[in-house]
User: What shape does this take?
Amino acid sequence: MRNVAILLFDEIEVLDFAGPFEVFGVAGRSPNQTRFSEPPFAVFTVAETTPVNARNGLSVNPAYRLDNHPKADIIIVPGGGGFQADGTPFGSRREMNNPVVLNWVRQSAERSELVLSVCTGSFILGKAGLLDGLAATTHFMAIDGMRQAAPDTELRPAERYIDNGKIVTSAGISAGIDMSLYVVSRLLGKDVADETARYMQYDYWQ
Assistant: This one.
């Protein structure tokens, strides 16, 4: 079993974290997937503070704080956010400059098997220095911001997800589902990813 930690923060985009949570949460649990004696993934949420107020007024209670969660084999950094009318950053644009979050990402990345980002979560990986010299993608409306957050990264905005080995980034929002299914396929086989998508009735996975 691999532990999957999903970072949460205020103004996070709901599907950015809920999509991957669903994929890893149900992978291997379909009645048709009988080869697993236990679920292959244990998924939990972590945050600096609790509760977290996600986009559109959704309140979420993270399972753990950044300093007290189980060891994570996979970490997921979602996105969401932007700038207020007065220029004040919120969501990922704020967290990309939060030293507590950046230190957690760096330290967790050193100990983890995989680091995934969804949408503008790539800003946080970029600011943490994890994308230097790599290729990455993000939300199509956030390319200019990504160039500033990760100037030493090759941007490929047309790609839905990009696998650099340890680090995998995805484009905006729903692309996190595709990336998560891809990672399930990479770790457990395409048959498991296919059955997970079928169980979720996610018809866009191939």
